[in-house]
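The authors assume throughout that readers already know how a fold can be written as discrete tokens. For illustration, here is how one protein appears when written out as sequence plus structure tokens:
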Amino acid sequence: MNFDFSEDQRRLQEEVRRVLTDVSTSAEVRTVLDGAAAYSAKTWRNLADLGALGIAIPENLGGTGLGHLELCLVAEEAGRTLAAVPLLSSIYLAAEVIKLAGSEAQKSDWLPRIANGDVIATAVIDPRTQTLAKDQSLTFANGALTGMIDALPDGMVANIAVLLVDDRLVLVDLAAPGVTRTPRASLDPSRPLAKLTFAGVAAEELAMGNATSIARRVTLGAAVLLAFEQVGGAERTLYAARDYVLERRAFGRVIGSFQSVKHKLADMFAAIEVARAHAWFGAWAMATDATELPRAAAAARVAATDAYTLAAEEGLHLHGGIGYTWEMDCHMHLRRARWLGQIIGTHHLWRETLAAALIGEAA
């Protein structure tokens, strides 16, 4: 039985890789890293023109109508090139929630504009990942949203936000009166964060279906998609390190010939392949809405976080002293690895999720 992606899916991946290699260059990512922009508008527009933003959105709602398997491949290439774009917040989270929980009018209003890149959305739909002041938690009553939410990805540039408030999914227009945005420090400045404060802001409920179940389903899907980003980034760091150690010479020979260096590269490769296997399992579970999704998503998240962290750290070490300099991209991968490992729940949280899923299946 062949568990690989199809030839058409691989051709799609190759095209996405070609486009992102051309536009999401180190220099382009550094414009966001240095604070000159909040995201790479050039990369975002190219992904939109390619149809990648709407790849899992139905054609009648402005998307390309493919599916989650294809979106996984887009995620892998975005991770490979450190794309400084709001894929997580806008596509993996907000668009999926609107697609599952929005009314026909809400879907028709927002999804086409998300798919073509004109609207950027952000979302926090898992209360375990929200950073809320004790006396300023979000409340939604009589159509008005009040409170504060911190460390929201892409909050400074998003047009709308989708939030889980008191077991209800709420969509709020961030251009509405009463919204205050404050930039927050981010471990990876190429993926900025913001604090949003709401003072009686008009909002609408996404009321089609069970809100908590939909939020959980979308969060698990996002974990799988982030795992693909992590695999892509980890593989990029592995091959960058390999290329360097095949050029750098010490004691009259390339350092890649030393056994200890080979062992480090082998460890990186092994961790990436384990993560890739879990990510593929997660992709299948997400695409088929299988009952194994909680276990598959958690396993993919844990394995991919381990793999990217290891690859980023060891890749930097294998570059030696030059790897620590600003001019090299090693630190950018280390920043992204740490950011991705925290943004929708810590490594420990996902290990607990995995353990609970395994115990539940064995019960």
Observations:
- Residues 212-362 form a domain with the Butyryl-CoA Dehydrogenase, subunit A; domain 3 fold (CATH 1.20.140.10).
